[in-house]
Automatic annotation (TrEMBL), chain A:
GO terms for cellular component: cytosol. GO terms for molecular function: electron transfer activity. Keywords: Electron transport, Transport. Belongs to the ETF beta-subunit/FixA family. Pfam families: ETF. This is Electron transfer flavoprotein subunit beta. The keyword Repeat does not apply. InterPro entries: ETF_a/b_N, ETF_b, ETF_beta_N, Rossmann-like_a/b/a_fold. Residues 23-213 form the Electron transfer flavoprotein alpha/beta-subunit N-terminal domain. It comes from Ancylomarina euxinus.
Automatic annotation (TrEMBL), chain B:
Its EC number is 1.3.8.10. Residues 122-217 form the Acyl-CoA oxidase/dehydrogenase middle domain. It comes from Ancylomarina euxinus. Residues 229-378 form the Acyl-CoA dehydrogenase/oxidase C-terminal domain. This is Cyclohex-1-ene-1-carbonyl-CoA dehydrogenase. Belongs to the acyl-CoA dehydrogenase family. Residues 6-118 form the Acyl-CoA dehydrogenase/oxidase N-terminal domain.
TrEMBL record, chain C:
This is Electron transfer flavoprotein subunit alpha/FixB family protein. It comes from Ancylomarina euxinus. GO terms for biological process: fatty acid beta-oxidation using acyl-CoA dehydrogenase. Keywords: Electron transport, FAD, Flavoprotein, Transport. Binds 1 FAD per dimer.
Length: 249, 379, 321
């Protein structure tokens, strides 16, 4: 079985986002780029399954649609245990464009399981996985919180409002990963970093494709008015304010 | 000239930072206060390959360059210098010497498990009467034909109680002065070795520092490291590299304290504004930033020279001297910026300040570094 | 040209977010000078469907197939696309919740329609179609231009509000063509957690962090939540340390929520945490540290020990009911 994990390259979650070029571009200066945290969880689970040895997973591959600045992120994916990385060399204009590029790759390179994170911490689209499943015409499991494979049988937990569903299904499918799928992302070990040097990072050119949307401009939120402090001895005042001023209680 | 780090060096720095933030930060105050050896944390350090990151892959190491080592040491030291000193001693004092001077059998038996982190190494040079002044060794290793018989006391030994491997320096031919010194690579559990009580230190309290006593310890001939009489060279060369480790540790203490102070100065308000907006504080932080950057250049330069195969003794002494002095100054200022909060343990900076003091002392005091540097000026 | 809002039901009932969705669709249709259609999938009683008329549904299309009572993004996307094609609709609006997030990407590919996920406002312009959405988890906004002829929007909760706009009931049934192949995922079982109030839906959320000192100190948090009918949540370190389950973690890498009222108790206010709750209408911070960054994003603040403040606050609210 082969698992493909879709990776997006996003600014570190502690980054204070800034824009340049009249708010048309994200300001890259001082930004630390990381694997989108949800994608990293998906990758971690895929590697765990492979290492477990009982799941007949032969290969864990990561794919990204992006420019060369994403290579460092892909190398990290290799260092934490992916076998192979693919970068489709293009500016990821919108989710549709990204999904269509990956779908095109999948036509000639089939995978049994495709994983992606439920959110990306940059454009918050959470759309690539769902779009891919439609391109592939296969089921997509959203909010996947558990993935187990035993003798080729796949068991999945899906978080639903107020609980979870336990599903069984056959491959191929797209899993859209939510927190809980694994404990914590891995820290690359020296050995992994060393081995990543020898693992393939293929750069493919993009196919001609249209995007359906694009970002025109960014905007930063306006700062909030200052916080009203309430004396801990007079909490009834807080309750009154919540009722009469904020009208939320 | 090129000031860019490689992609791989950045990845190692980030891995060390993630490890420090995710796995060392929680509990560091308690480990310091109770002087608890960071057993789990050292195990993880080994799993991640930091304990043998400089050792060649052939001997189960990470095969990383010294520049990466500086970056990793800085990140780990920002959070827990008790852990980073174990990493420094294992890597640059013990593993380095074995890789450089050891026989294949010694590498197989000692270097591989140390590089994997399965065994921890300690470096036994200092004595009650002899620190960096290695020729004054009182510990003797008498050549008995088929073995050496060792007697003496070693002091202030990092990982003295937990290490499984000792790199021991002792005199075999006292009359030959430094040409009579030998280095040995031994199992710490040999008969006749006893470990003194845990030293109750001012800082780096979680690292395990002991005296080690040798009472008629029989060391087989094949455990001698290098040629007969090569011990002094081994010790001095190991210390040259060790200085890069401790300099990076000092750098980490300084930059860790600086980051906390910078953050605090933007959050804490007095007279209606963030204290960063008071020039007295802003200038302090500017000075700190400049000195840290200079210390970082010293460390990276020494590491780069080592990686290029060029002499680095002078550079590593300068790095150690400057970084240690900077650590002391910057951590003291960080406490000052924190005001009353800086004096309580919760805010970390007082611990960093106590730890910084040791970087001016061990692996050659600042004064010793000046001796090394000044001698080098005429060389 | 018309606007279709997909009204998801939960066990046959709509939620406030559904009314907000229909209100929004109505406003958009008004601006486009077209009709507001509302699509319901699964069995819903007519009296429940009729409620949507209050918010401006010109026509309600009901697909009352019992096989569709449980959400399948694949099947729902198929049904919606059949309706869109039949009605020749140009705009599809879904709620930006779990179901909307699952269905909209599939629909985007089926209809070749550009998708703006998590929109926050009515369009800035109609031609070109430009709309505001959140990016970087609330740390910034983006204006997205959708270039395709058909367009899909998912609407962020609490971004438009519920607006009454009564029309008269025009209810039609629709029977989609669905191949059996689509029904092959087996749901083995469903487990519900004991968390009674669903975090994503909650109007009030009581959230606590490391400042609570120990997992054993959560009772006052639970009590405050319970007296207000609120959901409980927590910060990342708390869920990482296993004090609370992952499903309670709110923040940039956890759940992103936008309740009316958010209590941040013993939470310092790291940028990642704030990103996940910044769209709350009102934030109350309770913290022992007066310098905690959470106060800079809060509307109301109390400096004090949660173990003392919470029981008192609970008591005041209880007595005020």
């Amino acid at each position: 079985m082969k698992i493909l994990v879709c990776i997006s390259n996003v600014p570190d979650t502690t980054t204070k986002v800034k824009f340049t070029d009249n708010n048309k571009q994200v300001d890259d200066a001082g930004v630390q780029w990381i694997i989108n945290p949800w994608d990293e969880l998906a990758l971690t689970r895929a590697i765990e399954l492979k290492e477990d040895g009982n799941n007949s997973i032969d290969e864990v591959c990561v794919i990204n649609v992006g420019l060369s600045k994403c290579d460092a992120t892909l190398r990290k994916a290799l260092a934490i245990g992916a076998d192979k990385a693919i970068r489709i060399d293009a500016d990821p204009i919108d989710a549709y464009y990204v999904a269509a590029q990956i779908a095109d790759y999948l036509k000639n390179n089939p995978f049994d399981i495709v994983l992606s994170g439920i959110e990306s911490s940059d454009y918050n689209g959470s759309s690539v996985g769902g779009m891919l499943s439609e391109f592939m015409d296969c089921p997509a499991i959203s909010s996947m919180t558990k993935l187990e494979i035993e003798n080729g049988n796949v068991t999945i937990h899906r978080a639903i409002p107020g609980g979870k569903q336990i599903l069984e299904l056959t491959t191929p499918f797209v899993g859209i990963v939510q927190k809980g799928i694994t404990n914590e992302p891995r820290i690359p070990a020296m050995r992994g970093i060393m081995m990543a040097r020898k693992k393939p990072l293929e750069v493919l050119s993009a196919v001609e494709m249209e995007s359906l949307s694009h970002i025109v401009e960014f905007e930063l939120p306006v700062a909030k008015a200052s916080c009203k402090m309430i004396d801990a001895e007079h909490l009834e005042e807080l309750v009154n304010l919540l009722k009469s001023e904020a009208k939320v209680l | 000239m090129n000031f860019e780090l490689t992609e791989e060096q950045e990845m190692i720095r980030d891995a060390a930072r993630d490890f420090a933030q995710r796995e060392l930060l929680a509990g560091v105050i308690e480990r310091d206060e109770n002087a608890t050896y960071p057993k789990e944390q050292v195990k993880r350090l080994g799993e991640l390959g930091f304990l043998g990151m400089l050792v060649s892959p052939e001997y189960d190491g990470g095969g990383m360059d010294t520049v990466s080592y500086v970056l990793a040491m800085e990140e780990i030291s920002k959070v827990d210098a008790s852990v980073s000193v174990i990493m420094s001693v294992n890597n640059s004092l013990v593993c380095w010497g074995v890789q450089k001077y050891g026989s294949e059998a010694q590498k197989e038996e000692f270097l591989k498990p140390m590089a994997r982190g399965d065994k921890i190494g300690a470096f036994l040079l200092s004595e009650p009467e002899a620190g960096s002044d290695a020729t004054s060794q009182r510990t003797t290793a008498v050549d008995m034909g088929d073995h050496y018989l060792v007697n003496g006391i070693k002091n202030w030994i990092t990982s003295g109680g937990t290490a499984s491997v000792y790199l021991l320096i002792a005199h075999t031919h006292p009359e030959k002065k430094h040409h009579g010194i030998n280095a040995f690579l031994i199992d710490s559990k040999l008969e006749g070795i006893s470990v003194g009580p845990h030293e109750n230190k001012m800082g780096m309290r979680a690292s395990d520092t002991h005296s080690v006593m040798f009472n008629n310890v029989k060391i087989p001939k094949e455990n001698r490291l290098g040629e007969d009489g090569q011990g002094f060279t081994i010790a001095m060369r190991s210390l040259e590299g060790g200085r890069i480790g401790i300099a990076s540790q000092a750098l980490g203490l300084a930059s860790g304290a600086y980051e906390l102070a910078l953050q605090y100065a933007q959050e804490r308000k007095t007279f209606g504004k963030e204290i960063f907006k008071h020039q007295a504080i802003a200038f302090k932080l500017a000075d700190m930033a400049v000195e840290i950057e200079a210390a970082r250049f010293f460390c990276l330069k020494a590491a780069w020279l080592k990686d290029q195969g060029k002499p680095y003794g002078q550079a590593s002494a300068m790095a150690k001297l400057y970084a240690a002095e900077t650590a002391m100054k910057v951590t003291t200022e960080a406490v000052q910026i924190h005001g009353g909060n800086g004096y309580v343990k919760e805010y970390h900076v007082e611990r960093l300040m106590r730890e910084a003091k040791l970087t001016q002392i061990y692996e050659g005091t600042s004064e010793i570094q000046k001796i090394v540097i000044s001698r080098g000026l005429l060389a | 040209m018309s606007v279709i809002a997909f009204a998801k039901n939960w066990e046959g009932k709509f939620k406030k977010s559904t009314y907000e969705l229909v209100s929004y669709a109505k406003e958009l249709a008004f601006r486009l000078n077209t009709q507001t259609l509302v699509l319901s999938i699964g069995e819903v009683e007519e009296s429940e469907l009729e409620k949507l008329v209050q918010y401006g549904a010109d026509k309600i299309i009901s697909v009352d197939d019992s096989r569709l009572n449980i959400l399948s993004s694949r099947i729902y996307a198929e049904v919606i696309s059949q309706v869109v094609n039949k009605e020749d609709a140009s705009y599809v609006i879904l709620s930006d919740n779990n179901s909307g997030k699952a269905i909209s990407p599939r629909l985007s590919v089926k209809l070749k329609a550009g998708l703006a996920a998590g929109v926050l406002d009515v369009p800035k312009s109609l031609d070109p179609f430009v709309i505001k959405k959140q990016v970087f988890t609330g740390k910034a906004f983006a204006y997205v231009q959708i270039d395709s002829e058909k367009k899909i929007l998912t609407l962020s909760k609490n971004s438009f509000g519920i607006v009454e706009n009564p029309t008269s009931l025009n209810l039609v049934k629709f029977t989609p063509e669905l191949s059996d192949d689509l029904f092959k995922i087996k749901v083995k079982s469903v487990e519900s957690s004991d968390n009674k109030i669903i975090l994503a839906d909650a109007d009030i959320v009581v959230s606590a962090g490391r400042g609570m000192k120990s997992a054993d100190n959560w009772q006052p948090v639970e009590d405050l939540a319970s007296v207000m009918g609120a959901a409980t949540a927590c910060s990342r370190p708390v869920s990482d340390d296993g004090w609370r389950g992952h499903e309670e973690h709110v923040g940039q890498t956890g759940k992103v929520i936008a309740p009316n009222l958010y209590f941040a108790i013993g939470i310092s206010g790291a940028i990642q945490h704030v990103a996940g709750v910044s769209r709350s209408k009102c934030i109350v911070a309770i913290n022992t540290d007066p310098e905690a960054p959470i106060f800079s994003v809060a509307d109301y603040g109390v400096v004090g020990d949660a173990m003392i403040v919470l029981p008192e606050l609970t008591e005041i609210i209880r007595n005020g009911e």
